[in-house]
Amino acid sequence: MHIEFDPFSTHLGANPYPLYRELREQGPVHHAMPSDIHCVTRYEETRLVLSQPELFSSRAMETVFAKGRNFNFKTRHVIDVMRFLWRVRGSFFGLRQAGSIITLDPPRHGELRSIVNRGFTPKQIAAWEPWIREIVVDEIGDKLQTAGDFDAIRDLAIPLPTRVIMQLLGVEKSRRSDFKRWSDSIISGISGPGRHNPVELGILDSMAELMLFLGETIRERRATPGEDLISLLVDPDKGHALADAEAIQFVVLLLVAGNETTTNLIGNGINALYDHPDQLALLLEDASRMDGFIEESLRFDPPIQIVFRRATRDTQIAGVPIPKGAYVAPMLACANRDDRKFPEGDRFNILRDTTGHFGFGFGLHFCLGSALARLQARLAFEAILPHLGRLKRRDDVPAIIDSFLVRGRSTLVLQDTAPV
Ligand code: HEM
């Protein structure tokens, strides 16, 4: 039986996992006809693809998003595009040439990674815990004490990572709504409705504003370095430094890779506890199960569902021929449920061994911000968990965000059940 599956579809519904199971059962590689992409469904084959960057290039992470776009482009948009190019004229070509770390292959990837690693050492991240905890407390305020609705997405999962990244970059608080708008725009432009309509949905304007803002900020930090991440990455006294275009690309990636993902780890984790009250009971019984719960959330319902690679020469995956230049999509979320690696893969079990899950990817491009994301999630869960027994989830199946790449809930309203 042929299964209809398009990795660019944003209509997989509230629960894509039964479809993923069918795909895995049918074989390790599913050739998705509509977009001509070879989707890798099982654990072992996904690991093999991600561990061979010389054969499966990450350049795809830049070019694949142009596929399957259905540009709703009108003549009147020409002026907007010209205005965009004019606004970013100083940096546009430099940015294209610099490339983002997530799209680079060795050896350039390794050179860049060793520079940006210095902003994310385990020691630094552990030292950030007190101020991240303060942000959690500040955002929640007394919202959980009062009898109103608490939207775990709107009231905590969204503002927390945005504020954390802004603080890391040394950007003042007044820019908060701009930052959120910019990162939403990029995600929408890559994988949501903005893919087809970048002009009318304001994606180009947001991109121009962000690039101009970052260009200006980087120039300021070079002149007057501070204690922030940008100053650290552009400072030649600390060893190799990033050029302006590289620094802009990196900060844009942090907004994309660090915001929405962390939001959805928090949202998906809380949602899984409501779907599995027995697991909530296990967690409430013993707080030392927190790390297991976070890892299981990343395995069971990961914020990043899929990544893309491109074959550098004719090859094969589990005997399936893959021609040179073909796009290959390791389906992280699908492989994470493979029973061959994780017995009873469709079961949410916070006590299981989750070693090797693909929630943060695998290999050279393994998530740079994994420790930061885990820390934010832990602090958010610790703050909310004591209240979950009292709060009821308003919608049994909360609405899903509109993206084929990132999976999460757009709202997660928790209502007080105690008498007022
Ligand atoms: C729960 C939250 C997060 C998830 C699920 C996540 C997921 C991922 C995944 C799957 C990749 C690999 C992409 C690939 O192989 O092509 C990745 C890479 C990356 N992530 Fe994350 N991420 C999260 C949070 C963060 C945070 C908080 C930051 C930084 C502030 C961050 C920065 C990056 C960067 C820079 C890369 C590229 C690394 C490279 O190419 O060497 N991520 N992330």
Structure overview:
The protein is an alpha+beta fold and 420 residues long. 48% of the residues lie in helices and 8% in strands. The protein contains 18 helices and ten strands. The strands form three sheets. A five-stranded mixed sheet has the order 1-2-8-5-3, with helices on both faces. A hairpin with a 2-residue loop joins strand 6 and strand 7. The relative contact order is 0.18. The structure holds protoporphyrin IX containing FE (HEM). The site of protoporphyrin IX containing FE has 26 residues, from helix 14 and helix 18.
Summary of the model, kept short:
48% of the residues lie in helices and 8% in strands. The chain has 420 residues and is an alpha+beta fold.
Bound molecules: protoporphyrin IX containing FE
Helix content: 40-55%
Q: Give the overall silhouette.
A: globular
Q: Note the main sheet.
A: 5 strands, mixed
Q: For the residues shown, what is the average pLDDT? A: 90
Distance between the termini: 55 Å
Structure summary, number of beta strands: 10
> What series of H and E elements makes up the topology?
HEEHEHHHHHHEHHHHHHHHEEEEHHEE
Oligomer: single chain
The radius of gyration is 21 Å
Based on helices, strands and strand pairing, what is the structural class? alpha+beta
Name of the CATH superfamily = Cytochrome P450
Quote the beta fraction.
Answer: 5-15%
CATH architecture classification: Orthogonal Bundle
- By DSSP (H or I, 4+ residues per run), the number of helices equals 18
